[in-house]
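Lab notebook, page 48
Experiment: co-folding of the full assembly
Goal: obtain a model of how the components sit together before planning crosslinking
Operator: M.T.
Materials (sequences as entered):
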Amino acid sequence: MAEMVATRDAYGKALIKFGKMYPEMVVLDADTSSSTRTQWFYNEFPERFFNFGISEANMIGYAAGLSTCGKIPVVSTFACFGSGRVFEQVKISVCWPRLNVKIVVTHAGVSVGEDGASHQAVDDINLMRVLPNMTVIVPADGIETEKAIQYALENYGPFYIRLGRLKLPLVFDDNYEFVLGRMSTLRQGKDATIIACGLMINESIKASQILSDRGIEVRILNASSIKPIDKEAIILAAKETGVIITAEEHSIIGGLGSAVSEVLSTNLPCPVEMVGIADTFGQSGNPEELLKLFKIDADAIVEAVVRGMGRKGY
Amino acid sequence: MQDIANLKELAEKAKEVRRLIIQMIAEANSGHPGGSLSMTDIITTLYFSIMNHRPANPAWEKRDRFVLSKGHACPAFYAVLALCGYFPVSELMNLRKLGSMLQGHPDRKVTPGVDFSTGSLGQGISAACGMALAGKIDKKNYRVYAIIGDGESQEGQVWEAAMSAAHYKLDNLCAFLDFNKLQIDGEVEKIMNIEPVVDKWKAFGWNTLRIDGHSIEQIIEAVGIAHKTKGKPTMIVADTIKGKGVSFMEGRVGFHGVAPTREQEQQALSELR
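Observation: model returned without errors.
Model output:
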């Protein structure tokens, strides 16, 4: 059994590690620091941490202003508040001038659980992906989280990094190299390709084992880099396996499934099955119940693979 | 930047800025004359008498920063930058044209001297606060200036910024409210009253002054007070007249975002001689 690590915990540790390496790094939060783990950074570097209280729009503006003066602001809050709530500020104050602001959100998707619809960001990938100059990353585990944060700090420009609340099994080891715009192949297979991100990687791995028992071998691609997206890997998978199944803890409108479909429809049309949240709001419940209710768990992926394979060749 | 100490010379410079505002908006046949003319004396005084900046080196680290939070008034900003030497004055006639370095609202990527991109109201003031905070973190001596609008003051983000700047004791920040009393749809008082606005800024913890925004003497004096104030940011509520300097634009909401015709341009220029 792989070690279980929440991406937000990996983030908290990464902040301390990179805080030592990057003196220009400052961390901003809006009264969620104990949950986002930016408090861990505060404990080490109190003079470089700023809590804005509950004023996310203003926080984004500060980050933009700080970045024009050479600071590297890392801004955190829950995904629902760090995307839709501040969409216009991120668009006009950060992305338009292409400033060096790193937005790292936690508690994304329905797996935040009991807090319900108001706190479940299932539209944020869509919102951030549409913004010019924005880079969107959804790490699959704690190790990729640290690598993605490092990448964001080393490379100029706006980033949106989407983390979760839950503990997840580690997929990668320390030798893993994060490459922006490149999907890593977690499993080889010829019958179908699952392209997933975030905690759906874990569900995809579970699904692949169920499918393998039935004699179906799927390829799994980790699409942590949602934007830019790895067009070559998508086209190659379509060529070699003939059907693509996307899996994300996000609305099927505008997220990873849409990004993959955009590549395929303009390059190599091929059947796509999207595992994601239908056009609906979330609700309260425990994460496991919610993944099942919204049909974004391993069982739903298995069904989608079978359905997709039935469409091959049409 | 060589400061102009003489008040009369500054007034002449402001008049020159007003002429350029009229000319560039007429040439573009689009733009916002009213709010540009109302803040002309403030921005002219800042750039020619107060701010520490080097037009030959817009990225000079020690420069004072300026954020035009009411970004639509950029014709005044562009005219001042051109007269300072950030780019040729002739460039002003390309305002709002395809491929121009002078976009309809300030874009820091393409215009030398523009420290922050604005246009969506309420956002620039937060960024100005961020610049001031960066100065505090690094113990640098530069100061940050910003101009916000009265209609803009209806945006909630302005008050988030107000609260935070006082919280972080950003005494290196000095903002102006260009209080010209008009917004696109009519009188601010009738659309959504912002008064008592001095009391509001005071209540939010700012050193707050109220001046005649067309008195260069009062502008200089108020900034001097801001400079000496420790532990608090300063808000200078400047009573101004929308369209100031052009008789048929003064106090006329119709010239918020409408360009003068060529005939009106000539009349305005004759008034601004």
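Interpretation: Chain B has one domain: 7-271.
Next step: discuss with group before ordering constructs.
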